[in-house]
Amino acid sequence: MREGAAVDKSAWLASLRAGLATAGRFALDLALPPGCLACGRPVASAGALCAGCWGRLRLIERPFCQRLAIPFGYDIGPDALSAEAIADPPPFDRLRAVAIYDEFSGRIVQGLKYHDHTELARSMAAMMARAADDLGVGAELVAPVPLHPRRLWQRRFNQSAMIAAEVARRLEKPHVPDLVDRIKPTRRQVGLRVSERAANVQGAFRVSPEARQKLAGRRVLLVDDVYTTGATAKAVTRALLRGGAAAVDVVVFVNMAEVIIYTRQACGYCSAAKRLLEKKGVAYVEFDATGKPDLRQEMIARASGRATFPQIFIGDTHVGGCDDLHDLDGQGRLDLLLAS
Question: Given 237, 254, 271, which residue is the final one in a domain?
Answer without folding.
Answer: 254
